[in-house]
Structures are given as structure tokens and as C-alpha cells.
Specification:
The complex is a heterodimer of chains A (110) and B (123).
Chain A (H helix, E strand, L loop, with lengths): L8 E4 L5 E6 L5 H4 L2 E5 L6 E4 L13 E6 L2 E6 L8 E9 L4 E4 L3 E5 L1
Parallel strand pairs in A: 1-9
Antiparallel strand pairs in A: 2-6, 3-4, 3-7, 5-6, 7-8, 7-9
Chain B lengths: L2 E5 L2 E3 L5 E8 L8 E6 L5 E7 L6 E3 L7 E6 L4 E6 L8 E8 L10 E4 L3 E5 L2
Parallel strand pairs in B: 2-11
Antiparallel strand pairs in B: 1-3, 3-8, 4-5, 4-9, 5-6, 7-8, 9-10, 9-11
The chains are: A mainly beta (110), B mainly beta (123).
Chain lengths: 110, 123
């Protein structure tokens, strides 16, 4: 079952900006948008962004999502140590009639 | 406060069966689609199955189609995953997650997650 493609890792310095990408196709991201989730080691995932790029209540304004065509992006500004985590995109695929996750990106704050 | 509590995980032999449960509270259970998502040790997230709020529509990943069955009980506010013909590659932490929408299809916005239950398939 096809998934969404994310870079395996991103490393940035403290207080810098990291931009994560998620590439799909016109059956998923281009058609439906993508949500973003954060997962710290040993914990369940947490929703960071809805498909319309809005943030759930309580999520820091440092996280912002966007979309252009088949690619969704998550930008983290002012990186903090607690941002070290795995980040996943998630979309509905209308051709598969299934949810598809991205391959995940590990963010390291130097 | 939304709470999701999974149970039913454990060690099972290849070819065996297991039923996972997810007890929900803090929201109107029948108004939202629910999903099961798994994570193999050291691996990424893999969506397994989803069910609409009414239970009338179900969706499965190809990897589990024909072996797993998702269901829900409105009166007990509980989500289930019946897993048959288990394989070693089904070994994972299984999470239940609440969807933002009712239908399941077209949404894929999982806004609340349980802590997960570990399923180990081994001789």
C-alpha cells in the first residue's frame, strides 16, 4: 500500500527553523490535504495540525503547516529541545480508500 | 476529557487470534469514526483499519484485509479489533485513535490517541 514520502531526518540548531516535507499525489495530499502528528519516544502520537492547516488547541504557534499541490509542509520555528521527536504526515487516499501515513522524519535539535 | 484505553494485547503464536478492545470516554462515541494504528518496534506508524461513527462503513489496509475485523459497540463505548491468522510481521504496539469526522473516509485527522497495547506474534 503506497505511503507518503518524508525525509528520514532533519537536524537544525537551537532556535533555528526546520521545514519538513511530505510528498504524495493527487489521490491524497493534492485532493484531501494532510494532517501532521508529533511522536516523542515511547509516547503515542499527538495531532499538531489539521488538514486545513489549523492547529488544535494547545499546540504552539511555532508549528505551522501548509500545502502546495502534492506536497504538505510543516515548519517549526524557534526550535526547542522538546521539539526533538518523530513527525508524521497523514492523509486519506481516495484511490485506495485508506488512510496513509508518511514515512516519518526524525528531528534533531543541535 | 477524552480518554482511550486499549487492552487485549499479549503474546500469541503465529496463526493464532487475538481481540483488542479500546474503551472510550469523554466524548459522544457514536459521533466519530475510529481507527486502529500500529507501530512495529523501531518503525513508523502504519494505519490498520477505520470504522465510521455508525459502524456501517469499514476500511482496511491491504496488509490486514481478510484477517482483521474492526467493530464497535455503541452501548459499551468500545472499539474492537479482531485479529486472526496472525503473523510475525503483525508484532507491534496497537493504538486506537479517535477521528475528527464521522465517516472515516476523507478525514484522516486522528485527534486523540490511546497509550497503545503490545501484540507479539512469536512461536
Amino acid at each position: 500500500q503506497a505511503g507518503l514520502t518524508q525525509p528520514p531526518s532533519v537536524s537544525k540548531g537551537l532556535r533555528q527553523t526546520a521545514t519538513l516535507t511530505c510528498t504524495g499525489d493527487n489521490n491524497n495530499i493534492d485532493n484531501q490535504g494532510a494532517a501532521w502528528l508529533q511522536q516523542h519516544q515511547g509516547h503515542p502520537p499527538k495531532l499538531l495540525s489539521y488538514r486545513n492547516n489549523d492547529r488544535p488547541s494547545g499546540v504552539s504557534e511555532r508549528f505551522s503547516a501548509s500545502r502546495s499541490g502534492n506536497t504538505a509542509s510543516l515548519t517549526i520555528t524557534g526550535l526547542q529541545p522538546e521539539d526533538e521527536a518523530d513527525y508524521y504526515c497523514l492523509a486519506w487516499d481516495s484511490r485506495l480508500s485508506a488512510y496513509v501515513f508518511g514515512t516519518g522524519t526524525k528531528v534533531t535539535v543541535l | 476529557e477524552v480518554q482511550l484505553l486499549e487492552s487485549g494485547g499479549g503474546l500469541v503464536q503465529p496463526g493464532g487470534s487475538l481481540r483488542l478492545s479500546c474503551a472510550a470516554s469523554g466524548f459522544t462515541f457514536s459521533s466519530y469514526a475510529m481507527s486502529w494504528v500500529r507501530q512495529a518496534p523501531g518503525k513508523g506508524l502504519e494505519w490498520v483499519s477505520a470504522i465510521s461513527g455508525s459502524g456501517g462503513s469499514t476500511y482496511y489496509a491491504d496488509s490486514v484485509k481478510g484477517r482483521f475485523t474492526i467493530s464497535r459497540d455503541k452501548s459499551k463505548k468500545t472499539l474492537y479489533l479482531q485479529m486472526n491468522s496472525l503473523r510475525a510481521e503483525d508484532t507491534a504496539v496497537y493504538y486506537c485513535a479517535k477521528d475528527l469526522g464521522f465517516y472515516g473516509s476523507g478525514s484522516a485527522e486522528l485527534d486523540y490517541w490511546g497509550q497503545g497495547t503490545l501484540v507479539t506474534v512469536s512461536p
